[in-house]
Each structure stands twice: as structure tokens, then as C-alpha cells.
Amino acid sequence: MEILVCVKRVPDTAENEFELNSAGNDLDRDDLVYSVNEWDNYAVEEAIQIIDKVGGNVTVITVGDDESEEVLRREMAMGANDGILLCDDAFDGSDGKGIASILKAEIEKGSYDLVMTGAQADEGAGQIGGMVAAMLGMPYASLVNKIEIGDDKIIVGREIEGGNQEMNEMQLPCVISIQTGINEPRYVGIRGIRKVAKVDIPVKGAGDLGVDPESIGEAGAKTKRVDYFVPDMGEGAEMLEGSTDEIIEKLIERLKAKGGL
Amino acid sequence: MTQIFAYIPFKNGAAEDVALEFPAAAKKIDKGASLTAVVAGSGADLDKVAQEMTSIYSEVIKIDNALFSYPNAEVVRKALVNIIPLDAVFLFAHDTFGMDLAPGLSVKMDSAYAADIVDFEGIDGTTLKAVRQELGGAVSTHMAIDISSGAVMTVRPGAFAPVEGSSEGGTIVDKSGDAGDLSAKRKFLEIVEAEVGDVDITKSDVLVSVGRGIEDEENIEIAQELAEAMNAVVSCSRPIVDAKWLEKSRQVGTSGQTVKPKVYMAMGISGSFQHLGGLKGNPFIVAVNKNPKAPIFQVADVGIVEDILDFMPELTEAINDL
Ligand SMILES: Cc1cc2nc3c(=O)[nH]c(=O)nc-3n(C[C@H](O)[C@H](O)[C@H](O)COP(=O)(O)OP(=O)(O)OC[C@H]3O[C@@H](n4cnc5c(N)ncnc54)[C@H](O)[C@@H]3O)c2cc1C
Ligand SMILES: Cc1cc2nc3c(=O)[nH]c(=O)nc-3n(C[C@H](O)[C@H](O)[C@H](O)COP(=O)(O)OP(=O)(O)OC[C@H]3O[C@@H](n4cnc5c(N)ncnc54)[C@H](O)[C@@H]3O)c2cc1C
User: Fold this and answer.
1) In CATH, what number is assigned to the domain containing residue A131?
2) Which uninterrupted H or E stretch holds A28?
3) Total domains, chain A
4) Least confident of A210-214, B117-121, B183-187
5) What's the gap in Å between B214 CA and the centre of ligand 1?
6) What pLDDT, in 10s, does the model give residues B117-174?
7) A162 and B142 in contact by Cβ < 8 A?
8) Residue B156 CB contacts under 8 Å (≥ 6 apart), including other chains
9) Separation in Å, CA of A60 to nearest CA in chain B
10) Are the beta carbons of A237 and B301 separated by less than 8 Å?
11) DSSP-derived secondary structure for B67-111
12) Of the CATH numbers 3.30.70.270, 1.10.565.10, 3.30.980.10, 3.40.50.1220, which one belongs to the domain with range B201-320?
């Protein structure tokens, strides 16, 4: 089975305190720590487990810049066989549809049985998988937390509200987005990354892909991020301050009043 | 005039709460817009929801087909492309059905797509201004959406004020005959219900809830001790269940349990909307987090900036000494 997993390099929410830049219109990106989108690690792990059982290849792909190569190498250290970096100044300003169009152009050139994405990434849209599927005329299922592989079909469980599972049968080739918890992604150490440090990762641009320049980048974007801001949420929480003992005393008082003790 | 359509999700003949929230979203897009509800399903359940919607929407499009008795996103999408004007503004809920259907629909309708919108700030020409969040709610952004060839958008459930006591007296338009070819490469099989666990967190008045900030499986015990001191039960956020440190039945959130405690102790939880979506009944929320900018502090009643691994044992001791 040929499996393609789409991955994105994102600011790590566990490692960063997000601040706006001095102009107040973008994140202060100087010291941001980046990593692979959490959901994508589950997708790569699942792909590896599938080919361990039925044979085949796992390719990881990303649309990004030079620095995005490191996330491909990380996923290759997990066990993905190949990586593809899609990178071009012409991609700047792409919205979700632009990114999906770029991915679609490369996917069409291969012959993948299964394309996987994460359920969502840092921007929280959960859009790329469904768009790519529709562009390719393939069936799509989102939020998948169980996969059974058949001959020309797969059965997938989608995790819906309340943790219930919606079982679907999908014809191959298809696109699925993976939800966390489907497996336990393996740990990748420095040594694993070193092993794949020299593997060649092809870099492709708009010309190689033959994408219509009108459908990508700034020109193709029907949605644009205007700015970042921190909303004024009214009062917010009453912040308890002082020494830990003082804080605990104040907290116990409030818990007693509210029925917590 | 902007034409806005809203897709109404429902279960067992009852519309989800978001059905009452689309009208406020539509008004914020364009006060003068026309707003039509779209309900797809089959039989008596569908009729009941369509009827219910006439009190809120002036027009209700009904699409009845036996294939929609369970809404398979791929099949519903095919019908919608044939029935809804391609240049319309089309709203969905950002729930597991909306996430499944809407991105692909925007491709088939050749419309702009924007997801999980929490506010609209009106239209200027053909540009719609919307507000959404990124990075798990740590930052907000303004988006400019070109709606000249239509837009498909999902809105966050609970983000817009529900209409109250509406009596619109709308009409039902049956478009079942226009659904077209509904053959699909994806087939719905069945629903497997979530497992019932050892404890029922929905029954407890006080929850000590742990998030990724607990850092290690062994530290769960620290929360357990605090819960015992408070006569409470331990619940958690999703990553704790993903890591298999606690059972799924302990998870609070849209893909876990809906709880209505009196007091909710959020320990090392950032406050994502999917987590908060499981918290109902306006509990007294105490948040302890080492990051002073954590989004949970925007919704909590009391906030404490501390390391939970140090703070929880001290709090337990102080309570036991009372
Ligand atoms: C080169 C580049 C330039 C950009 N320029 C702009 C800009 O000027 N303005 C702006 O507002 N936004 C810009 N973006 C952001 C772009 O719009 C987002 O990448 C896109 O919207 C998808 O992000 P998301 O978080 O919504 O993904 P989601 O749809 O939430 O992610 C779901 C899954 O889709 C896959 N996926 C997402 N993004 C990628 C990717 N890049 N490569 C491979 N797989 C992916 C992953 O599997 C991920 O788990 C740019 C992005 C790139 C890569
Ligand atoms: C369709 C869908 C459904 C979902 N359903 C749910 C759901 O039902 N429930 C749910 O919870 N999530 C759900 N999620 C996941 C959700 O988006 C978030 O990823 C998740 O809620 C984050 O959990 P968290 O707050 O524990 O972790 P994080 O966001 O990583 O936050 C951890 C917090 O702990 C703080 N911290 C770290 N160490 C310490 C320390 N030592 N002391 C104090 N503070 C510390 C950090 O500052 C941070 O704020 C869902 C996602 C999707 C896409």
C-alpha cells in the first residue's frame, strides 16, 4: 500500500508563550520553537503500522519553507520511507485552498492508495484533507481514530461528539484525517534523526508541479489574515497573588463559599 | 442582498443548540441579509425539525431522502451542491459533521472557506470581516473573506447569542426532488457507543481536572490525593486519555463527557474550546497554570499562576489540616 502523509511545521503550543510583535499585527516570531503538528505524528505512526502489516511505502510531504525540511526528517526518523518538500516563493500568501491545490498537484503525480492528514493544525481549521479529497474526487472521512485495511476498501471509525464512533466503509484511494489517540506515536531520538540526515529530499516548486499560479499564493487566496490580536475578554479571572500560603488561604475561602469544600 | 443559508444539525428529531445561534451570526454578517435554514434527513424526525425551524427562520429548505437517515457527509454534500445557489454564504457548525463536510463543499461550490469563526464584523463591498482563533485559543485573528463567489464557513457552537422567543412563522420548501445523483464512495455502517467507565464524572459536584500540565502518569496520584481531600472526582483533558493515563470516561469535552459540576478545578489545562465545550451549567472555575497567558484564565473565576506539581500537594495538605 502506498501511503502519503501530509505534515505541517507549527509553533509548539507547549513550548511557547505567544506574544504580539511591536506593531501588534503578527506574532513575535523571533524566539518561537517549532515542531511537527501534534496530529500529524499520529498520522505518520498509523501509516507506518499499516505498512508494517500489509507492506508498502510511507511518504511524508509538506508545503513550507527551507526550515520545513526538518519536520520531514523527523517523520522519516520515525519510519517514513520518503519525503517531499514543496517550496516556492510563489506559494507565499496561500490560504487553505492554495495549500490544498499545491498538495493536490503533487498527489496526482503519484499513485497513492491512501492520503492522510492530521485532524487539525495550529490554525485550527481542519480544512486541508477535505479540500484535497474534493479536488481529487476521492472520498474523505475526518477525525479517524480506527482503521481496518481491506483489499480495495478500508473501514474507518470517526470519533464524533461524546466519544462515540461512526463506522464507515471507504473505497480506495481515499483521504482521511487522523485524530489523536488512534495510537501512541513512537519516540524519536537524536540518533534516529542523525540516521536520516543525509537522505535526499526532493524539493519541488510551482513549475515542477504545474499548478495554475492564479489558484495559489496571494492571487488565489479568497481568505486573508489581516492581523493577530489578543481579545479583551472583559474581566477574566480574579488572579490570586502572594506567597503560596496566602494564595491557598484565599483559595480555600472561595472554595468554601462556592461549595467546593 | 446577501443570501445566507444555515445547515441545521439535529439528533433524534431535535435541532442542536447552534440552530438558535445562526441568526445572530447572520445579522453580524449583514443585517439586511435573507436567512434560510437547510435541513436534510428523512421521515418524521426531519419533519419535526423542519417544523421547529419555521419559528426561527423565514424559509426552511427540507431535503428528505432515506439515504440521509444518518447524515453521511459525502452524500449530503452532493445534494447541497445541486440545491443551494453556488454564490451563497453557507454556514455550518464547527462540529464533527461540519468539519467532515464543509471544506470539500467549498471546493465543489468554488467558494471561499473559513472555519471555526467566533465573530463577524460585517461586509465591506464583497469583503466579509471575521474573527477566529489560532494556536489553541492563545491568539485571535481578523480575517478578510472575499465572498464575491460565495463562502462556506463553519461557526463555533456557543460563540453567538441564541435567539429567544422567536415566532417567525416561516415556510417550508421541499427540495427533495432536486438532490440529484447521490451515489458515493463512502458508506455509513453503524455507530459504536463510547465505553462506560468505572466512575461517572457527570455525577460529581466537584471535579479536579488534570491536563497535559500533569506531565507524567505517576503525577496523576497527586491529583487523586487532592480529589480525595475535596471529596471530589478526578477528570481530565483529552491528551491524558490519548496517553492512556486515565480512562476515556474521565475526559471532559466535546468528544468526551459533558459535565455540570458546582466547582471545576482546571489543573494544567490550557482551555481549548473543545475542552470547555464539555463544561456546562456555569461552574465556579479555578485554574492553576504556570503560563500567565493561558487562555483558561479568560474563562476562569479564580486564576493562580503556579506549577501544579508543587501547588496541588500543598493545597491537599492545607485542606486536610482544616
Ligand atoms: C508557504 C506558506 C505560505 C503561507 N502564507 C500565508 C499567508 O500569507 N497568509 C495566511 O493567512 N496564511 C498563510 N499560510 C498558512 C496557510 O494558509 C495554512 O497553511 C493553511 O491554511 C493550512 O493550515 P491550517 O492550520 O488551517 O491546517 P489544517 O487544515 O487545520 O491542517 C490539517 C492537516 O492538513 C495538513 N496540512 C496543513 N497545512 C499543511 C502544509 N502546509 N503542508 C502539508 N500538509 C499540511 C496536515 O496534515 C494537517 O494536520 C501559508 C502557509 C504556507 C505553507
Ligand atoms: C474534534 C476535536 C475534539 C476534541 N475534543 C476534546 C475534548 O473532548 N476534550 C479535550 O480536553 N480536548 C479535546 N480536543 C483537543 C483540544 O483541541 C486540545 O488539544 C486539548 O484540550 C488540550 O489539552 P490540555 O489543555 O490538557 O493541553 P495543552 O493545550 O497542552 O495545555 C497544557 C497546559 O498546561 C500548562 N502547564 C504545563 N505544565 C504545567 C505545570 N507543571 N504546572 C501548571 N501548568 C502547566 C501549560 O501552560 C498549558 O497551558 C479535541 C480536538 C479536536 C480536533
Assistant:
1) 3.40.50.620
2) none
3) 1
4) A210-214
5) 30
6) 999 999 999 999 999 999 999 899 999 999 999 999 999 999 999 998 888 899 999 9
7) no
8) B94, B116, B117, B118, B273
9) 22
10) yes
11) GGGS--HHHHHHHHHHHS-TTSEEEEESSHHHHHHHHHHHHHTT-
12) 3.40.50.1220
pLDDT for A230 equals: 82
| Least reliable range by pLDDT among A230-234, B105-109, B187-191, B255-259 | A230-234
Determine the average pLDDT of the residues in B250-255. 97
How many Å lie between the centroid of ligand 1 and the Cα of residue B200?
39
- Among candidates B74, B143, B303 on the partner chain, residue whose Cβ is nearest the Cβ of A140: B74
Q: Which CATH number fits domain B3-178: 3.40.50.80, 3.40.50.300, 3.40.50.2300, 3.40.50.620?
A: 3.40.50.620
Query: Quick one: pLDDT band at residue A118, thresholds 50, 70, 90?
Result: very high
How far is the centre of ligand 2, averaged over its atoms, from the C-alpha of A169 (Å)?
31
Residue A106 lies in a domain: yes
Say whether pLDDT at A173 is over 90: yes
Q: A241 lies in a domain?
A: no
The Cα–Cα gap between A108 and B210 comes to: 44
Residue A131 lies in a domain: yes
**Amino acid in position B214:** I
Candidate from B103, B144, B230 with C-beta closest to A261: B230
Give me the helix-helix angle, A96-109 and A128-136, nearest 10°: 50
Q: Which residue among A222, A237, A260 places its CB closest to the CB of B287?
A: A237
pLDDT tens per residue, range B30-74: 999 999 999 999 999 999 999 999 999 999 999 999 999 999 999
Domain ranges, residue A120: 2-220
Do the domains spanning B3-178 and B201-320 agree at the CATH topology level?
yes
Average pLDDT, whole number, for chain B?
96
- The answer to the question of residue A50 being in a domain is yes
CB interface of A with B, residues 12-31, below 8 Å: 13-14, 17-18, 20, 27
Judge contact between B266 and B286, C-beta under 8 A.
yes
Distance CA B291, CA B306 (A): 8
Q: Taking the CA atoms of B50, B54, B57 and B58 in sequence, report the sign of the dihedral they define.
A: positive
Q: Is A201 on the interface with B (CB under 8 A)?
A: no
Q: Which mutation among B95, B289, B293, B297 tests ligand 2's pocket best, with the greatest number of atoms within 8 A of CB?
A: B289
How is chain B split into domains, by residue range?
3-178, 201-320
